[in-house]
Design a protein that fits this description.
The protein has about 250 residues and is of the alpha/beta class. Helices cover about 40% and strands about 15% of the residues. It has eight helices and seven strands. Helix 4 links the parallel strand 4 and strand 5. Helix 1 packs across helix 8, helix 3 packs parallel to helix 4 and helix 4 runs parallel beside helix 5. The longest helix is centred in the middle third of the chain and has 25 residues. The radius of gyration is 18 Å and the shape is globular.
Length: about 250
Amino acid sequence: MHITIITGISRGIGEALAKRLVEPGRTVIGIGRTDHPELARIAGQAGGAYAFYPCDLKRAEAAEGVMERIFGSIEPEQAASITLINNAGMLEPIGPIQDASSGLLAEHVQVNLLAPMILVSAMIRLTAGWTIPRTVVNISSGAGKKPYAGWSAYCATKAGLDMLTRSVGAEQGEVEHAVKLISVAPGVVDTGMQETIRSTPKEKFPEVDRFIGLKQTASMYTPEEAAERIVRLLASGRFTQGDVLDVRQLDV
């Protein structure tokens, strides 16, 4: 059984990935505050399996605990591979950094960067000695490379996620049975996050007109298109340890 653990499966790219991956021989495990009511039914119809583990990733201790529960339920000899997809994220606060509350900044860093750190750490520790393929996919953003006024927290945490991928990739190296890590920017995807961006006043996000234009010209990926590209990338195996990739630059 191939097992894929996905955070943030209730909507957007996480939902699309889960729907794409519930197929025969594969189990999808969702992590998040809210389950997707249709995924169990879709998995049953597709011949796959689905399980949901409730977890508020804004709480550091909850992130570690959920991985212990998940891996406590997995029989290593029955697993053909394990993939963790760190997809959950938040955009707020939008606006100049001086207008952001300390509480919201702390939540942002916890969800976008600290939770993935904890989940990656737990996966490596809890699967120590496993000889099956183990992969971590961190869903990043072009904002991790390009600064945007009004997105200082988002840009900083996505850049941090990319460096987490590179650094832990360097720790794991290319030895046999190493956990493989990659970071993938999915392009501009038409999700609820984009709706939030387009409704943001220009004084808080000066580049809002660009994103409004992308919607008007249908120049964004759908979540399903982004998910398909990520799945094809993983299936192709055309990546190396610690790669930081952008689907818009890949032939997949």
